[in-house]
């Protein structure tokens, strides 16, 4: 799903799978898998660089944004569910903001 949408907005599954993190300077290769706390730290650091208040954003903000964009682009529900690590299609829908 990520490559079809945009690698820099795909955040789901990062703890065990991701070795790349998008940033303004490109992608950073990491020598170890991304941990939940490190991903959060880097995400919030990028928000601050953009002049945003990092306290207003969290993992669900990014998951919701990514799922919303993917759904708007017509990415199949089963791919959203797999990428998001969600067990049911109902859970997918909790992350998609249809007003966007």
TrEMBL record:
Gene3D superfamilies linked: Intergrase catalytic core
Superkingdom: Eukaryota
InterPro entries (alphabetical): DNA_brk_join_enz, Integrase-like_cat_sf, Phage_Integrase-like_Recomb
BP term (GO), one: DNA recombination
Gene Ontology MF annotations: DNA binding
Sections of the chain in a coiled coil: none
SUPFAM superfamilies in alphabetical order: DNA breaking-rejoining enzymes
Protein name according to UniProt: Integrase recombinase xerD-like
Species in which this protein is naturally found: Paramuricea clavata (Red gorgonian)
């Amino acid at each position: 799903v990520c490559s079809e949408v945009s690698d820099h907005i795909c955040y789901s599954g990062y703890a065990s799978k991701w070795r790349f993190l998008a940033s303004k300077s490109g992608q950073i290769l990491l020598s170890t898998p991304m941990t939940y706390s490190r991903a959060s730290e880097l995400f919030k650091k990028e928000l601050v660089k953009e002049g945003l208040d990092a306290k207003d954003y969290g993992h669900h903000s990014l998951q919701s944004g990514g799922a919303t964009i993917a759904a708007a682009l017509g990415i199949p529900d089963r791919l959203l569910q797999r990428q998001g690590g969600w067990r049911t299609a109902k859970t997918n829908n909790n992350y998609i903001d249809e007003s966007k």
